[in-house]
Amino acid sequence: MLEGKRGVIFGIANDHSIAWGISKKLSEHGAELALTYQNDTLLKRIKPLSKEINSKLLIECDFSQSNSIKKCFNNINQKWDNIDFVVHAAAFSDKNELNGRYIDTSLSNFINTLNISCYSFTEISKLASSMMNNGGSLLTLSFYGANKVMPNYNVMGVAKAALEMSVKYLSVDLGSNNIRVNAISAGPIKTLASAGISGFNEILKHVEEKSALKRNVTLEEVANTAL
Ligand code: NAD
């Protein structure tokens, strides 16, 4: 289905990452992937994963470093002159502030969270779209905490609301180039990022029980549906 298509993946930390689940499926369907990694510590985990899906391009990209996204696309452009899709499955906030009251959010963490979890997708969309010569697809990951107040999700909920709104603006900017922009709001899944949210296991348990009851499916199926 995706033979001949090329895409860039942001957000693999390990084999539990949502970005890794998506990458495996894309690869199974024939897509060629460039994987990015945040830093050298994560590179050690991503290298063996890249071999599993035969990915030849492994590129460093840390959204908190200025020009990192630009350098990343310059690197990709040296190897590929066209891309068809991007998956942005990355977010960050200080875990000390994913706990307690939203009102206590510090300015520095507010700016950092919005920069890494939201603005990065806008910058990536701009650079990626300039390499999408035949149209394409830009995908990011959101969470229900963008729409409803969730305990402890705090500034990340604000960032996801901004991300979802930026998807709408980007889709208007890029629609005429035949580029689709979407966010998938995933259900709760145990990953490195979700481990930083205080009380996350309770949300996970609640959703698993409700979903399994409603559809009479296994918990594994619930997690797959969220992907
Ligand atoms: P994860 O920890 O596996 O992935 C998060 C990724 O963000 C990591 O690969 C990390 O390297 C990257 N990242 C963090 N700071 C970065 C930076 N400065 N520069 C570049 N990359 C950076 O966790 P995940 O749960 O797979 O998260 C992927 C996406 O899915 C996130 O946007 C998250 O908010 C979203 N999401 C997760 C859940 C869940 O329950 N796990 C639910 C809904 C949405």
Please provide a written account of the structure.
The chain is of the alpha/beta class and 227 residues long. It is built from 8 helices and 6 strands. Helix 4 runs parallel beside helix 5 (154-175). It is globular. Nicotinamide-adenine-dinucleotide is lined by residues 11-13, 16-19, 38, 42, 61-64, 89-92, 116, 141, 143, 186, 188-189, 191-194.
Describe the structure in brief.
With 227 residues, the chain is of the alpha/beta class.
Task: Sum up the structure in keywords.
about 230 residues; 6 strands; binds nicotinamide-adenine-dinucleotide; globular; alpha/beta; 6-stranded parallel β-sheet; 8 helices
Strand content: 5-15%
Cα separation of the termini: 19 Å
Element-by-element helix/strand order: EHEHEHEHEHEHHH
Name the ligand types: nicotinamide-adenine-dinucleotide
Output the radius of gyration.
17 Å
Shape: globular
Structural class, please? Answer: alpha/beta
User: What is the overall pLDDT average?
Assistant: 94
Number of helices: 8
Q: How many strands in all?
A: 6
Tell me the major beta sheet.
6 strands, parallel
Low-confidence stretches: none
Widest sheet, order of strands: 3-2-1-4-5-6
What's the helical proportion of residues? 40-55%
